[in-house]
Design a protein that fits this description.
Strand order of the largest sheet: 3-4-5-2-1-6-7-11-12
CATH topology of the largest domain: Rossmann fold
Helix content: 25-40%
Structural class: alpha/beta
Distance between the termini: 16 Å
CATH architecture of the largest domain: 3-Layer(aba) Sandwich
CATH class of the largest domain: Alpha Beta
Shape: globular
Strand content: 15-25%
Bound molecules: adenosine-5'-diphosphate, alpha-D-glucopyranose
Number of domains: 2
Number of helices: 20
Radius of gyration: 23 Å
CATH superfamily of the largest domain: Glycogen Phosphorylase B
Length: 487
């Protein structure tokens, strides 16, 4: 089948979070399943810098663009997947991230940028860009692509659409004035369409108009039907429950595997697990943590956002150091106040706590390899990839039992430990007390039952969350969606 995969960030070209990992790794897995899959993304300056051979394959005249928009073609590095880039310098040729400047402030013209992107995608999808290729299905991801299903619904002979929700918390909400400036069909503003409590919602474009909806874990697909996790969209989602399913994300073990990870101090695997200690020593050295091989070293890596519960880590941190005798390592970037809090706490316990504020993939690899435990106290988590990466590195995840965290980590209840199926630890409420109690449980096993702890690590390392499985599910789903019409 011909699939056009639409995303606003794609690893290794540009990345702010897990969406880029998925957009960079699922398409090659789909190609391996025999799909004719091509990616389309905006031609950000940073993305173009990561590509070698780029060809201009079409020129489009689009509403909202002062100049002709070029469609560039290349190959996603390290894969055989063709990638199109929508080149519109006025919107995408700038320093900074895909959605925000280097200070973290959202670009003020994001609505216009992703409207233009959607218009270009529609031209590709309708084979009006002289590529002689029309997809059977357009697979959209998150709010930045939400207008695509909405605009395609107005076209004759349009491909089917699938909209994947990676994170319902980011909806792409804009004012009525902004909506007016976008020159979109007037009826897009309406409760049954994309109006959302007085705002214009890009996310609703996907939720209302796509032929099918998915989320990135089965558990999250259920959670978003409730007021607690639905962000006011639970009613709409419930009305579409027959068209909604959850497919668990996969990961790319070519990149996330301690056996051949080039970023880490010493490679290791299940058969050479003792070498993980070398990575711990190197990590302690890198972050000026005291050289204490036996102390449990717990880490957090990720966006500094409300979602991730970093505030719980910060309030539980004194107890982890003073009462549980742990070393703590935190790395992330995002909300300014949390970044500052990381700086402060980094100085408070010399030799026992270290922090790094910034975005660095290499550091993340070394932390996975060197830490003993990985903490994810997320308030909600559509899937989460960090805990899956940690499993492969024998770094035991301690997670809040929510969303994809629940679907990927098996709690070390006495029953699960006995059966030999446990891979980590769960706690249920998003508060520092519950989190600490759970971290304490982990420490107890770590100190008192080293054999069981080792078993837990090995169980985790043997889990297989490769994309092969997930890609098969997407292939089946694509066929169902396209077949619906033909049947
Ligand atoms: P989310 O997409 O919600 O941020 P995930 O766990 O799905 O969470 O994926 C996050 C991805 O982004 C992981 O690959 C993680 O290592 C990476 N990441 C997040 N923050 C940073 C950072 N500051 N530096 C490097 N990589 C990061
Ligand atoms: C989002 C979610 C995260 C998920 C990622 C990739 O950023 O927050 O849980 O793993 O998308 O689907």
């Amino acid at each position: 089948m011909r699939i056009l995969f639409v995303a606003s960030e794609v690893h290794p070209l540009i990345k702010t979070g897990g969406l880029a990992d998925v957009a960079g790794h699922l398409p090659p897995a789909l190609l391996a399943q025999g799909e004719d899959i091509r990616i389309v993304m905006p031609a950000y300056r940073a993305a173009l810098q990561g590509l070698e051979q780029i060809e201009v394959v079409a020129e489009l005249f689009l509403l909202g663009a002062a100049q002709p928009v070029e469609i560039l073609q290349s190959i996603l590095p390290g894969t055989a997947v063709p990638i199109y880039l929508v080149r519109c310098p006025q919107y995408f040729d700038r320093e900074g991230g895909p959605y925000a400047d280097s200070e973290g402030n959202d670009w003020t013209d994001n609505a216009a940028r992703f409207t233009l992107f959607a218009r270009a995608v529609v031209e590709l999808a309708q084979n009006r860009a002289a590529l002689e290729w029309q997809p059977d299905l357009v697979h959209c991801n998150d709010w930045q692509t939400g207008l695509v299903p909405a605009l395609l619904k107005r076209e004759a002979d349009a491909p089917k659409t699938l909209f994947t929700i990676h994170n319902l918390a980011y909806q792409g909400l804009f004012s009525w004035q902004t909506f007016q400036s976008l020159q979109l069909p007037r009826d897009f503003w309406g409760m049954e369409a994309m109006e959302f409590y007085g705002h214009f919602s890009f996310m609703k474009g996907g939720l209302v108009y796509a032929d099918h909806l998915t989320t990135v874990s089965p558990q999250y697909a259920e959670e978003i039907l409730t007021p607690e996790y639905g962000y006011g969209l639970e009613g709409l989602l419930r009305s579409r429950v027959d068209d909604l399913s959850g497919i668990l994300n996969g990961v790319e073990y070519e990149i996330w595997n301690p056996e051949h990870d080039e970023a880490i101090a010493v490679n290791y695997g299940v058969e050479s697990l003792a070498l993980k200690a070398e990575n711990k020593r190197a990590l302690q050295h890198e972050y000026r943590l005291d050289d204490e091989p036996d102390k449990p070293l717990i880490a957090y890596v990720g966006r500094l956002a409300d979602q991730k519960g970093v505030d719980l880590i910060l309030s539980g941190l004194p107890s982890m150091v003073e009462h549980l005798g742990m070393q703590v390592l935190l790395l992330g970037s995002g909300r300014r106040d949390l970044e500052e809090a990381l700086w402060v706490v980094g100085d408070r316990y010399p030799g026992q706590v270290a922090t790094y504020v910034g975005f660095s993939e290499d550091r993340v690899h070394r932390i996975k390899a060197g830490a003993d435990m990985f903490l994810m106290p997320s308030r909600f988590e559509p899937c989460g990839l960090n805990q899956i990466y940690s499993l492969r590195y024998g770094t035991v995840p301690i997670v809040r039992a929510v969303g994809g965290l629940m679907d990927t980590v098996v709690d070390a209840s006495s029953d699960a430990v006995e059966k030999g199926v446990a891979t980590g630890f769960h706690f249920s409420s998003a508060n520092a007390g519950d989190m600490l109690y759970c971290v304490g449980r982990a420490c107890e096993l770590y100190w008192d039952q080293p054999d069981l702890w080792r078993k837990l690590m090995i169980n985790g390392m043997r889990q297989d969350f490769s994309w092969q499985q997930g890609a098969k599910h997407y292939c089946e789903l694509y066929r169902q969606i396209v077949g619906r019409e033909k049947a």
